[in-house]
Design goal:
With 291 residues, the chain is an alpha+beta fold. The protein has one domain: Jelly Rolls. Helix content is 23%, strand content 20%. The strands form 5 sheets. A 6-stranded antiparallel sheet has the order 1-12-8-15-6-4. The chain starts with a helix and ends in a 20-residue tail after the last helix.
Length: 291
């Protein structure tokens, strides 16, 4: 139990968190150090760390209901994409994985359509949450994105749809499942299939073709589970959702640099619109990778 004196100093945004196992309000405590060490070990060993039951059971109905309330605000657009989310390029060889068409059927609720009083929005802006995540991923400091749309979003995968194989633009993806689907909706990933400057297109092709399945990990996440994932280097997807309930995931995006804003091209792909803050053409990633 949290001592009464400590409870009085707990930020309101952290009330839904299981602070006995994840004492975000007590950095440097033995329990805090243990949680950080466990997350770091998962990322190092398998490219993924899941903090099961991060949100306490008594708060999960509210977490789920808030996601359901804003899900209709998502931008829905079924698109044919490739694993890198790049534009078609006739100069790419025929056997390149960028040639493999994939159907993206998930949708995103942008940050400016997520009210500030929702649990996920309060968590996103909470300094203690951000400091804990920075320690878990080995960053000196994490900053909220300056992007008014992409810093926080809700990923919605409706029944009969999937979020196909892809890589993330952030090195570490941080997400919180707010509603599980009735069936399907399994998170699958191939850990560290590529590295900075080394695409390993042959390995990506094997996964897209349904081969090399032995190295693909599968996670059936539950409402309230927090996931830290090396999404920049690990190929991943959410399989087709079954039943009648969409799968909802809050995605928290931070950067080690302040003032980061997404490009106009990627922003329009995800949210169907841009704002004056978004720049023009996309610049090449600093790590030399395609996306």
């Amino acid at each position: 139990m949290v001592p009464p004196t400590a409870a009085a100093t707990i930020p309101a945004a952290l009330e839904p968190v299981d602070l006995r196992r994840f004492p975000l309000h007590r950095p440097g405590s033995p329990e805090w150090d243990d949680a950080v060490a466990t997350a770091r070990a998962g990322l190092a060993d398998d490219g993924c760390a899941v903090l099961t039951g991060f949100v306490r059971a008594s708060w999960r109905d509210r977490l789920r209901a808030e996601g359901e309330r804003i899900a209709p605000r998502a931008h829905y657009e079924t698109r044919t994409v490739n694993v890198y989310n790049t534009e078609p390029d006739d100069e790419v060889p025929d056997d390149h994985p960028a040639r493999v068409p994939l159907q993206r059927g998930n949708a995103f609720v942008a940050r400016d359509r997520i009210p500030g009083d929702l649990l996920v929005h309060r968590l996103y802006t909470e300094p203690a949450f951000r400091a804990f995540l920075a320690a878990c991923v080995g960053a000196g400091e994490l900053h909220e994105l300056a992007d008014p749309l992409a810093g926080l979003c809700l990923n919605v995968v409706p029944p009969g749809r999937e979020h196909p194989w892809h890589f993330d633009t952030n090195e570490i993806a941080i997400s919180l499942l707010t509603r599980a689907s009735d069936a399907g909706g399994t998170f699958e990933y191939h850990p560290d299939i590529r590295s900075a400057g080394a695409e390993n297109t042959a390995g990506v092709t094997e996964v897209l073709a349904g081969r090399d399945r032995d190295r693909v990990r599968r996670l059936d996440l539950r409402c309230g589970d927090l996931q830290l994932f090396r999404g920049r280097f690990s190929l991943h997807r959410v399989t087709e959702v079954g039943g009648s309930r969409a799968r909802h995931t809050a995605i928290f995006s931070y950067s080690t640099r302040p003032g980061v804003v997404g490009t106009a091209v990627r922003t329009r792909q995800l949210f169907g619109r841009t704002l004056p803050e978004h720049g023009g053409s996309r610049s090449a990633p600093s790590d030399g990778l395609l996306d």
